[in-house]
Structure formats: C-alpha cells, structure tokens
Amino acid sequence: MKFTLNGQVTEYNGDPELDLMTFLREAAGIVSPKNGCAPQAACGCCAVQLNGKAVLSCVTKMGKVDDGAVTTTEGLGTYRQNVYANAFVQCGGVQCGFCIPGIVMQSDALINKNPEPTRADVEKALTPHLCRCTGYKKIVDAVMLSAETIRNEEELPAPTGNGHVGTRLPKYKAQDLVLGFHHYVDDIRLEGMAHGALRYTDHPRARVLKIDTTAAAAMDGVMRVLTADDFPGDRTVGLIKQDWPQMIAEGETTKFISSVLALVIAETEAIARAAAQQIAVDYDVLDPIIDMHAARKTDSPTVHGDTNILSQSITNRGDLAQSKAESAYTAHGIFQTQMIEHGFMEPEVAIAYPSADGVEVLSQGQGVYDDRVQIAKLLGLPLDKVRVIMVPNGGGFGGKEDMTVQGHAALAAYILQKPVKVRLTRDESIAFHPKRHPIWMEYDIGCDADGKLTFCKVEFVGDTGAHASVGMKVLERSAGHATGAYNFPVTDVVATAVYTNNLPCGAMRGFGVNQAAFGLESLIDELCEQGGFDRWQFRYDNALDDGDMTATGQVIEAGAGAKTTLLAVKDQFYAAQYAGLACGIKNTGVGNGMPDVSSAKITIVAPDKVIIDHGWTEMGQGVNTIATQVVCTETGIDPAIIEVHIDTKAEQEAGMTTASRATSLVGNALIDACKQLKVDLQTHELGELIGRSYDGRWIVDWTTKPGAMVEKVYTHYSYSYATQLVILDEETGHVAKIVAAHDAGKIFNPTLFEGQLEGSIHMGLGYAISEELEMENGRPKSTMLRQMGILRAKEMPEMEIIGVEVPDPYGPYGAKGVGEIGLVPTAGAVANALYQFDGVRRTTLPMRIPRRGLQKRVNGGG
Amino acid sequence: MKPAPFEYIAPNNLDEALIAMEVNGFDGKLLAGGQSLIPVMNFRLAQPAVIVDLNGVTELDFIRPNPGGGVTIGALTRQSRLEHDAIVRDRVPLLHATIPFIAHPQIRNRGTIGGSLAHADPAGELPVLSVALQARFKLQRYDKERWVNATDFYQALFMTALEPQEIMTAIEIPPLPPRTGWAFQELARRHGDYAQAGVATLIALDDDGVCTYARLVFLNVGEIPMVATEAAQLLVGERISAESITAVVNHAIQHEIEPTSDVHASADYKRHLAGVLTKRAIRQAANRVTS
Q: Is the dihedral angle over the CA atoms A306, A308, A311, A315 positive or is it negative?
C-alpha cells in the first residue's frame, strides 16, 4: 500500500493491523506523536492528522491509512510550526509539553475547518486530550491566538525578554516541546539498544515458590532473563526506608500487584513482552492485607517485619480537656479521602548503557542524585561509577520520586554491557508507581463564644500501601499542617502511616496537606454555622499572623500571608450566592530536621554561551527558566545565551525535586554563585571569563524534628499561603468559578506562576469531585487512564488567579514555593460551597456531582 | 423528503466513536443499520445536527459463546447474521426463531441488534426478547462503561437508560435454566408489518410436569416491553392445563398490560389478541421442554 507522510509518498507492505503510532515512531523515525497511553486512546498525545482530520495514531490501523495522507507536526510547514510554537510559549500553554504536539495537530485540524473558533469550540475539540500541567486555560489561549494569527495571515515572532525576576520570560527551550521535537527518554534510540519487559507477580500477596524462565529464555530474540539473584549489590532500596526489593526472589513473599519477579531483555520490546508472559511462576497464594484499620492491629499479618505501622507523627501542646470544656462551640467529623493517580502524561521509561567501568542512566525521575544512590547500591558500585542524566520529563507531580524502571535498566545494561531501554505501558504505570495516600481522619475543633479558635484534635491514618516510599513524611506533613492556616492555641495531633498490600502511596502534589485541609475547612464552616459567625470574617480573625504558631509549635517569624490572600477574595465571596471558602498553608522545603541543600554552578563556556548546572528536575514546572532568571537578574546576562544542565556528573548536589522547594533552593544557590561572577563582570567582559566556573551553595540544616525537645521549633524554613473561593452555578450547583489568591512571596514569572496554579486547580478540582483509583482486593479495579476521573478541557470552570506577595525572610527575593499549594484548599472550598447549595455535609472524596446538578436545599444558601 | 443538513462523522474504531459521542452526544445521533433513523430523518421527525456512523466500527460485529453458556453479541451485528448463526441457533433458540418475524430480509441485512434495542420501539421484537431472556447491555462512554439489565433499560416510550454520550456496544444473553421451553407468538396483518400484539414466553417444568419458572413479556401492548410478573407467578407450582393457562392469561391481560388504540387495532382487540397468543405460547413453550 501507498500513502503520503508529510507530503512524501511512502510505501508500506507490512501488517495492516499495526497501529500508525508504532509505524511512525519505530519505522519512520517520527517521534513527535508521543506515546502516553497506547492503546488506551485516552490522552491524545499521539494525535496526528489523517486526510485532514485529527486521529489518535495509537488506535489507527495501518490498513486504514492506505491511499491517505498522514501529517504530523513535522509536516505543518515552517509558517504554522512557528505560529503554534510561539503562541504556546507566549501564552504559557506549554509546561512539560508531552501532550502538546497532539493538541497542536487537533487544533490545526479545527482551525482548518473553522478559522474563527470560540473558546467553547476549542475546549470541545480538545475532548480526546488530557493535560495534567496547565488546567487547559493557557492551551485554549494559545489555540485562540494561533487561529487569529493564521486567519489574519500574520507572523507571530518568538517572545523574548531580559529575563529578570518578575518578568514573563518565555519558558526555557519550550518551542521544541510544542512541536514534539524535544526528545523525552522514550524518544531516544541508541545504537544496538535492547529492550526490557518486566514480569510481575500474579497476586498481591503470595509466597513465590518457583520462577521458571526456561521457556522465555529459549524464545527467539530473547537475550537474557534476569531474576533477583542477578543483582551484584543489594536489591532492596528505598528513598528513606530500604524496603523495596527491585525483584522478589523464590521463597520470598510478594508485596503488591506490581512486585517484580523477573526482567526479560530482548531485541525488541514486543519479543520481551511476549517472553515475559512465558515465565511460569508457582505460588502459595495468601490473602492480601487491604484494610489499613485491620492492618494496624497487633494480630494482623504483616507486609514487612513485625508491624504494619510504618510511622507515627505526634505533636501537641496545651491542655486539651480544659480547652474543650471551655469552648463555646465544638465540631466533630470523620473524613475519608481516596487514592488517586498522578496522571502525568509520560509513563515511566529509562535507558541505561555501560560506561568504562560503570553505568550511565537517562532518567526522567524527580531526583537524579537519589536515583544514583539507589542504582549504585543495586549494582554494588561506588557512586562515581554511576552517572544519571536528567532528561526533562513529561510530568511528575511526586509520582516519579521512587524508582520504577531505572534500576532494572541499569542492571540489564551493566550485565549485558549493552544499552537497554525499559518502559512501562500506561496499564503498568497505573498499577506500579506510588499514589496519593487515602487518609482517614477524625477531627475535633472548637472556638469560644467570640469565634476565636480554641483547640484542634485530630487523628490521621494513612494507607501507605506495600512500600514506605515517603509515606512517613506524607503523614508527618498532614500532622504538621493539621491546623491549616489558622492559629490554634491547643493542639493534639497524631498521624499514622500503615502498610498494606495495596499500591504503594508516596509523594503527590500537596503531600498529605490536601487531605487535612479538606477535613479542617469543612469543620471551620460547621463552627461558623453553629455560632452564627460569618465564614469569611471567622477565617480572617483566626488566620495565622506573624508571631502565631503552626500545628507543630513553630512561630511564624515573618511572611505570614494568609490574611492578605483572604482579603483578595473578600468582595467576590460576598457577591456570590453559593460560595465556599478555604485557606491553605504549605511548607517550602522538606525541613523536619532534614537538610534542604542546593548547590549550583555557572560556567562561562564562550562569549555567547553560559551553562548553569543544577540538580533539580525539570518536569514542566519551569525550574530551568527560574534558574535562568536568577542569573539574568543578578548579572544582566542575556537569557538567550544561557543553557541549563541537570546531570550527576556535574556533582551539583540536590535532593528530590519535591516540597515546592526547587525555586527557593536553586534561586538561593545561584544568587550565591553570582556573587563572585558579578564582581568579575565589573572588571571583565564575559568573553574574558571563558573557562571560569562559579559555585554557589545554600543550605538549611537548622530545622527541627517534630516532637524534638528544642527551645525553638523550626519545622520548615518557609511556608506559602492561599485562599480559594469556589462559586457554584446558581441553578445546578456545578462549580462555575474558582478564585485562587496565592501568596508566592515574590512572583518570579507570572506566566509560570499562573500555570502552576491553574494546573493545581485542575488537579485539586478533580480530587474534589471526580478522581479516584479504586482498589479491589489489592488490585486496581481499572488501569484505564480514561477512568481515573481526570477532568477534560470542557469540564473546567472559569479560573481567576490572584497573586499576592508577602516576602519570605529566607526565600530568594522573598519567594516561597507555589508548586503544591494550589490544590491544598480546593477540595475543602468545594465541599463548603456544595453545603451552601444543598445542605449536605460531604465527608468523603470524591464528591461526585450528578450531571443533572444538585437539589437546592430548602430555606438555604446565600 | 430529504433530511435536514447534518455533520457526518465516520469513526474508524470504537475509541473514535466514543470520542465523537463525547463531543457531540447532545446534538448527535448514532447511525447503525439506519432502518428507523433514516426514515425519521427523511420525514424530518428527527433533525440531529451530527450523525456518528458506526458502520466502520467493525469490532462491534461479533457473536461469541460465553464460557458458562449463553452468548455475547456485538451491538453492530446484523439481524440477518443472528438468523443464520449456529451459535445463536444452539444457545439462544428463542432469538434465532424470532428473527424472521422482524420485517423483511433486506431490512434484516442492514438492521443491527444494538440499533433495534436502543431504538426501543415497543412494537419491536428484539426489545421484548431481551427483556424475556434477561439480557444485559454494555453501555460505553468515553471514560466509563456500565452494564444495564434489559429490564431496567426500557423506561418509557422510546426512552431508555442510555445517556446522550453513551454507545451500546454489546449484549450479553445468559443461558436458559435447564428444562426450559420457549415460544414467541405475534400477529401482524401482513408478515413483516409491525405486529398488533405479541408475546415471548419461557416455561420450565420439573420431572412431574410442574411449572418451576415462567416468564411472559408482551409486545406492543404498552410503552415498553410489558412483563407479566404476577401472572407468571400464578403458573409456578401448577401443571400446564386449560384452567391454569386461563387463570394466567386472564390476570395478565387484565392487570399487566396497557394497550392503547391506534389505526391498526383498538385497545380491546389488542388485549383479546394478547390473550389468545399467550395461550398458544404457553402450550408451545411447555411442549418444547426437554429433559
């Protein structure tokens, strides 16, 4: 058969059942259509045009392409390529970029059919597409701008700027992201590269009696089958607690449904996957431990060791009994939140290849230095024999902190002495990486007759699943933020993380704080109703001020921005008929006695080339852009000549890109590095400094552990603050608008700031009303991305982002983290708005709103 | 007449069809065999803005035996294929025997099982059979799917449980209980016309000829397929006799059907006709019980 591919006549005589995406990516070498979920047809990342219509190439058979014309971004022509690339960059419509090439092809088809689309037309056309970063608003802006530019036959120049902090510097290298020319790990092909596939357990909890790999090893094209015995080093790793064996050996018990038993390496991925199915395993099947409440009891079987209690975080102060007795009003509630999937668009993949006496790994993980430590341990190598290179990834949101396939790829490359790629399909990804903790919580809070909060007592129990990951830190964060953005004189908080055989739960944007805010903010409204207090004024009167204490007893010395964010939404709150309010607080930096460290290096390579090396992961949020802006602001260097690298070879130590801390830490480290550079630039031209490097470092090692007996509690060095207002449609009760007022200390880049918050609101609203990954007997009920409840463009309400700047004493230029706080208040604000509408107090997430809308309560609202 | 203008979308596979319905469900209609939709569009009784043509979604054309008995049938399977299929003949003889009552061969060559079920014409044979056989329907939407029992699917005249964006993709028909006989009876003035009334009957008898299970579902004597639950219950525990049949029939036609008069027949005539057909059907079904 023949067809045209980007205008070239192409012949194809292979299997007509092959999907077009595989043909394009593997045979034709066109990698702009991204593989986000094939063959689930859920994400739209692989969309191309067939005869002028946008189709999902992962489910389009080659047989249907016969005689047709296929177009990818490569075939759009220079004019349209430039329009889309510049429009998306200018509007901030691109973050991680993984979904954008597909969206460009869909939008291009729309614009051809309808040169003057409305926003609703664009949102409708984007129905097959998911974006997890942007909240869609800026994508729609970009499509509208593209349509207008094309309609008027105008040029759209590339946006530029001096890059100073506070300006809308275009996102670093983002034009390539828009057109799909950036190579994510899965787009990289190395000479002689072999492919791996994992064989998982068939049961969440079973003793593995025998793993028979003979049939798999004998298959044509199979190069090697690796099992637990093949690790030269210690195969059990973990970010904090070493409890995650990268493979389970015969005689051991599996931990969860994606415990790995073997890795097949073959010439092609298809052969490797087929062979993995041929591995026969005998089990002694055991009942999985699935209920965290039962698992806490001493008579429960255990997942690891002799108890299922992973951690307990306790903090308290004051006399609870007395405070409770003296309170005029008290509110009590039991809340349950759900497990959800991160839904980053790029599934996990790693490529490893042998180096002289070690191994190098291309990773999309959130912490290349942590990857390195763990890989070195698996292989029994010193750290300097392992190099991990960060390839800017297609979204993380916490879900790429733990290693999934990096260790397996490294092992195979090291043993076979060949490049090896291991990637997860979307089904595998959903069943594998750690999720957001389902948390059960029982809250009691009170206030006096004047509406001053008196006490907060809360117990959190979180299901951390099969492996610790960072579960103890997530529950610690719930405890530390249990009192939200309010001042409670008396506290009694305990948070417990419990092992089960469910999917592991770990880091996810918000990190245990979203759950707490949902419970607390619901009860704040209850107190208001009981005492007849105004919901806005009550919050304002109790919001943290400088000098007040957080749940852990830390005194906020400066930068408390909660009240300022409340003021920012005040007028709209009173103007709305059905509205819900919630405030939020979120730490910047891990703190709690763990150091927050960053170093960074600036190297002058040429008169027109400056390299910044740092250790933080670029996952769409824009840390490379932020790094560039700091150097531009300090030194006046043109952003156009700056390159940013993230590679363990540069030894620029950083921890996990987590805890909303990358801007704060990389900013301070680079300000430090610029000190000497600024001095040198006073006496030298840039060209005279070629070959010189400037090192910078910033460290906070003075935070204190929760419960530590210290004179002064410093749980975190910085916090950010927010208030969100959710306004409902007056007829149906659907969410019509979200106003988000956020204190970022200093807004580095308004475009990136809005992008972080709009994306967070998308995730927070999904968390509130639709997202859930349901488990049944230790297995996910579905591994279909479409069924995770992630909101689509046409389901998003209007969003208004209000930036507030109350400077932080430690942040660079006063900046605070904004990566996570955007979804801390959302669920609580939605719950409070819904209560106003129908009088129903919701205590479980998600709070599904029927399509037809809700029944208004009688005599209520307003 | 000709239809009002509409946008035509022809998806190549189910995923594309689901997306098309997700986007256009509220102003769109699915086109399967088109034996009802095209006439009503040509008469401009329906003026959908978008037509999503399922005929390219060949993955919905299948007949699969279920491991525990019964069959699963793809919604796009043509009625004529059901008429000539050995799996359907062996496993769901009631369905196999009833297909020839549907219109004419040319219509059955185009008409699909899913289209007829979703169209929900109370005079249609397939809705009645699906309720009699306690089938379930798989209803898929882009981001979720669900199974709905035929008995819950039909809600009112031409109204079903289908959401605007949903597509019926499969029909699962469970096996009949052992020792169950079946019958379908209808009367139309000319073969192939819509019947004035009809009934599908299932009867199970034990070794002594005592009825252990009975099901009566009526065609075109109400807004939806009418199930005579109470009448059927009267037969359970009884032998098949003139007296027991009369009691059942009287109860069914007096209390459990709601015929209305139309140009083809009066309500009273339909009620009478339903009784006569039910008597024949119960006898016929009982005679088909094999040990």
A: negative
Coil/strand/helix, residue A355: strand
Closest-CA distance, B16 to chain A, in angstroms, reads 8
Backbone angles phi and psi of A445, in degrees to 5: -135, 160
Instruction: With a cut of 80, say whether residue A860 has pLDDT above it.
Output: no
Give the H or E element holding residue A834. Answer: helix A826-838
Q: What is the pLDDT of residues A281-333, one digit of tens each?
A: 999 999 999 999 999 999 999 999 999 999 999 999 999 999 999 999 999 99
Q: How far is B149 from chain A (nearest CA, A)?
A: 21
Identify the structural domains of chain A with CATH numbers, from first to last: 1-181 (1.10.150.120), 194-287+347-428 (3.90.1170.50), 439-591+713-838 (3.30.365.10), 596-700 (3.30.365.10)
The per-residue pLDDT for range A411-446, each reduced to its tens digit, is: 999 999 999 999 999 999 999 999 999 999 999 999
Could you write out the DSSP letters of every residue in A471-534? HHHHHHHHHHTTTTTB--SEEEEEEEEEE-SS--B---TTTTHHHHHHHHHHHHHHHHHHHT--
Give the integer Cα–Cα distance in Å for A660 and A668.
14
DSSP string, A710-745: -SS--S-SEEEEEEEEEEE-TTT--EEEEEEEEE-S
Three-state secondary-structure class, residue B81: helix
d(CA B126, CA A360): 64
Q: CA-nearest residue of chain B to A41?
A: B15
Give the DSSP H or E segment for A151. helix A137-151
What's the longest Cα–Cα distance across chain A?
83
SS3 A184: coil
Q: What's the complex ipTM?
A: 0.75
Q: Which domains does chain B have, with CATH numbers?
A: 7-56 (3.30.43.10), 58-173 (3.30.465.10), 180-290 (3.30.390.50)
The label of the residue with tokens 């190579």 reads A183
DSSP string, A743-775: E-SS-S-HHHHHHHHHHHHHHHHHHHHT----E
Taking contacts as CB-CB distances below 8 angstroms, the residues of chain B near A787 are 143-144
pLDDT tens-digit map of A234-283: 999 999 999 999 999 999 999 999 999 999 999 999 999 999 999 999 99
A 10 A CB-CB count for A683 gives: 7
Residues A694 and B209: their CA atoms lie apart, in Å, by 98
Region of residue B120 (left: phi > 0; alpha: psi -120 to 50; beta: else):
left
How many whole angstroms from its chain centre is CA B64? 19
CA dist B258 → A790, A838, B223, B252, B253 (Å): 45, 39, 8, 10, 8
Residue numbers in A near B13 (CB within 8 A):
59-61
Question: Structure tokens of A357?
Answer: 């006496």
Cβ proximity of B183 and B167 under 8 Å: no
**Hey, are the CB atoms on A41 and B15 less than 8 Å from each other?**
yes
For A560-568, what is the mean pLDDT? Answer: 97
